[in-house]
Amino acid sequence: MKNLALHWQILIGMALGVLWGMLASSLGLVDFTLDWISPFGTIFINLLKLIAVPLVLVSLITGVSSLSDVSRLSRIGSKTIGIYLGTTVLAVLFGLVLVNVFEPGKAFSPEKREEFKEQFASTTTQRSSAAAAVEQQGPLQPLVDIVPDNIFKSMTNNGSMLQIIFFALLFGIALIMIPPDKAAPVNDFFEGLNLAILKIVDIIMMAAPYGVFALLAGLVVEFAGNDPGAAVELLLVLGYYCIVVTIGLLFMILLVYPVLVMTVGKTKYKHFLKGIFPAQMLAFSTSSSAATLPVTMECAEKNLGINKEITSFVLPLGATINMDGTSLYQAVAAVFIAQAYGIDLSLTAQLGIVMTATLASIGAAAVPGAGIVMLVIVLQQAGIPIEGIALILAPDRILDMLRTTVNVTGDATVSMMVARTEGQLHPPTEITIK
């Protein structure tokens, strides 16, 4: 597969992983797959997580320090955050429109609801406990959490990405404010370190097709067990809900982002999609914006021609606070659960969902499954039974893959928009993807 482009290698790995998972389920090779194949997927994810913190820290420091003045940083930062919040609110609103029009929750029978509650009772309790800890915090706790008391402690936890971003911004601003001759050696050090980290990313990505194969093979056998028909039946029961979520995600990726790319970014969307495609495929297979970040940055710079000083600031920030796909999913899932329980949500309650889902997306960790924990907070705010999460846990991993793809595409879209408005977009004449 060495002669194939990376995105084709990843696609082949995904297809073979699904095929192997179904065969393993049919032939009784579930334990073999979980013991001898799935761990390689975990190793691949760990490698991506390994490089996430160093990449964000170093790339943000180099990106901010290269802006040369604090006023420019302020302009780019406010522009980036404003666009991120705008697209997130739009995603939540469209999700609410979809779920109210199609009403997928009313397709569940009481018997099926009880079956899901019993099957996922322990997982639901675990998610509820995690969310309860967040819910008990004060209104300004998210602001407090952004400022670390020990940066080295924060760097040992991928869930503390906002704290790392805060330190990197502070460090980069300090480099701008000290005399240039004193800052030069530090800038050179971080430039060299950044190159080394990017080379590590290249090395890790050589294993991407095999890691993706192992990830999806393990996912399919966990989902189906020894009965492949169980997966099919489950998907049929929850298919309506999944379709509604998918329509919303497609709305973002096929309508909202194209409009933004073509009007503000002044770029053909086909060109944009071709350039970001490897990152989309990795996002789909890993369900992690943070794990995909190295590839997203590489695609944005090499394939889309976005200046490094923009990507090194906008993309790490987006991987942490911009979760359009996750926010849309939370809106649909919350109302879906309310419908399944026969709860009619008022307009005020649904507007509360918009606010909560938007704010929750900012604090959600860019790792698989984080959206479920934040969904509990959304449910509590709207007065929807938390136990209803049991209804959507089964297909959540698949939807997580889809919404992460949207999250990553949204990050790249905003990066292109900011680059164009700053005169930092220089698309290559031809896209070459490794």
From TrEMBL:
<keyword id="KW-0812">Transmembrane</keyword>
<keyword id="KW-0769">Symport</keyword>
<feature type="transmembrane region" description="Helical">
    <location>
        <begin position="36"/>
        <end position="61"/>
    </location>
</feature>
<keyword id="KW-0472">Membrane</keyword>
<dbReference type="GO" id="GO:0005886">
    <property type="term" value="C:plasma membrane"/>
</dbReference>
<feature type="transmembrane region" description="Helical">
    <location>
        <begin position="12"/>
        <end position="30"/>
    </location>
</feature>
<keyword id="KW-0325">Glycoprotein</keyword>
<protein>
    <submittedName>
        <fullName>Glutamate:proton symporter</fullName>
    </submittedName>
</protein>
<dbReference type="GO" id="GO:0006835">
    <property type="term" value="P:dicarboxylic acid transport"/>
</dbReference>
<feature type="transmembrane region" description="Helical">
    <location>
        <begin position="81"/>
        <end position="102"/>
    </location>
</feature>
<keyword id="KW-1003">Cell membrane</keyword>
<keyword id="KW-0813">Transport</keyword>
<feature type="transmembrane region" description="Helical">
    <location>
        <begin position="200"/>
        <end position="225"/>
    </location>
</feature>
<dbReference type="GO" id="GO:1902475">
    <property type="term" value="P:L-alpha-amino acid transmembrane transport"/>
</dbReference>
<feature type="transmembrane region" description="Helical">
    <location>
        <begin position="237"/>
        <end position="260"/>
    </location>
</feature>
<dbReference type="InterPro" id="IPR001991">
    <property type="entry name" value="Na-dicarboxylate_symporter"/>
</dbReference>
<keyword id="KW-1133">Transmembrane helix</keyword>
<dbReference type="Pfam" id="PF00375">
    <property type="entry name" value="SDF"/>
</dbReference>
<feature type="transmembrane region" description="Helical">
    <location>
        <begin position="160"/>
        <end position="179"/>
    </location>
</feature>
<dbReference type="InterPro" id="IPR018107">
    <property type="entry name" value="Na-dicarboxylate_symporter_CS"/>
</dbReference>
<dbReference type="InterPro" id="IPR036458">
    <property type="entry name" value="Na:dicarbo_symporter_sf"/>
</dbReference>
<dbReference type="GO" id="GO:0015293">
    <property type="term" value="F:symporter activity"/>
</dbReference>
<feature type="transmembrane region" description="Helical">
    <location>
        <begin position="272"/>
        <end position="293"/>
    </location>
</feature>
<dbReference type="InterPro" id="IPR050746">
    <property type="entry name" value="DAACS"/>
</dbReference>
